[in-house]
User: Fold this.
Amino acid sequence: SWAPEREVRAEVLAALLLDDPVEPATNPALRLAGARVTGSLHLAFAEIGCPVMLQECAFDEAPDLYQARTRFLSLGRSRLPGLIASNIQIDGNLRLAGCHITGELRLNGGRISGNLAMNGAHLDNPGGAAISAEHLDVGSHLRGQDGFASDGEIILTAARIGAAVNFDGARLRAPGGLAFGASNMIVQVGLFARDMEVDGEVSLRFARVSGPLTLRGSRVRNPGGICVRGGGLNAEGGLFLSLVEADGQVRLDSAAIGRALNLDGAALRNPGGVVLAADGLVVDGALHARGGLSSEGEISLLDAAVSGPAHFEGARLANPGGVALAASGITVGKALKLCEGFSAQGRIRLSNAQVGSRLCFDDATLDNAGDVALRAWRLETRELAMRTAGPIRGTVDLRHARIGALRDSPDAWPDAMRMDQLVYEVLEPMLPAAGRLGWLRRDSDGYLPNAYEQLAGMYRRLGSDADARETMLAGQRQRRATLPWYARFWGHLQDATVGYGFRPLRAAGWLLALLALGTVVFALAAPPPLKPGEAPGFNPLVYTLDLLLPIIDFGQEKAFNPAGGAQWLAYGLIAAGWVLATTIAAGLTRSLRRV
Assistant:
């Protein structure tokens, strides 16, 4: 209820602003406070030469300032059913602080040389645009803080802001729509939107912010949709999403971030879908995702590039049955730390990843039982630390990876591994071959020559030839199980006699044992000579050597003819000699070729 004396007709205000005064004042201005403005205030295309201050007024109809031009406009704490000000030009500030606008605030194509102040304003246009300001040009600051609230879409597409944008503490509501649409916006100083409450989408697609862009502590809800859209975003001073609660997808694909991308303590939720889509992301600095970061859904960093370190210490990623972290093709200039309390339920993909210094899983928990827990196919890093908090539940795939130092713990080995063509320089701890062979046997692909040769090569480089031979012998034994029966028989024979050539002393032992047996038997039962009177003197030791050595001839074998059991012993010694000679030759050939 407004008393009649507090009512002012809109045409009266228009006349005051448009008519030239007879005697111009030194500083002419229109000031009106606490009035009800009836009728339509029509100032489209008007040239208003003085400041306009209509404070705490109530308008029956939306003022029309389409393509008008003025020096200063303040509608502070006023109530309006809307404001039509597309293409307006203001050579100063536009103040809407504390306003309550129940329709559309239309500023498309406007030019404001000073500030646009909306602190404490309440905009209500549910289902429509609360602010429509495409291509708006603000020379200084755009402010919407101190309790600013909007029920309706805020459209700032392709707006240009000469200083900072500040929506700290704002409450924005546009369910299913653009709660804050700033695609292609250009901001010269920084965009600050800390502790916001948003119901709808925040769009920063292809926006360019010369300074920092922060949504620290904000809560953005758009379940089943995109809550933060930042594809192609360029934030030169860093992007700060620490402590953000996002219900929906955060999209940062192909974004370029300077200094740092900070997700410390954020809570990201998009169960069953991609919760952070950042394929092709470029961070010229560090990636921080620590401090209790939690995610429900897939974090995708495919082909991303981080020039500094990437920190995920203490982060908790959950996407059971799916991919928890997809970072195939990622390039990290320094360390990639998935450690110190890091946990992942679901697959981690690091295929073709390149880590400049260290990839760390120390004290981490990886759980994807029955499937691949870590796929690091063709990974390249100087150091891989895998001293996890407990055994990895699931398969670890390190095929074709190239690693400098691989540090692990037998207590944390996974149930299954895949290591074909894995290349490493050193393993820590330096376990003996007997302790490492169990590691190789966990390979689900079975016998792989390269895996045993790689481990044996490491032992040789470190001067442990005995461990190298033990490794290669174990490889031959595992290979034997893959052969047909006749080849397995021959393999067992080589193993028993010379250890596939890796235990040559075993052949000497067999020879000495057979030599002793033959010497004793033939000394007790000397065979008769073939030609009495012409045979040399019988020597049981030399005679046994003549039987065992298939190439050397001492003349004893041809001169004597054993009978009965001695004859069968002679046949056995001849056969054993040939078998030993053949297996020794095969073993030495393999040994010279591989060891």
About this structure: The helical segments are 10-18, 433-440, 449-461, 465-480, 485-498, 504-524, 540-548, 565-594. The chain has eight helices and 48 strands. The chain has a mean pLDDT of 89.
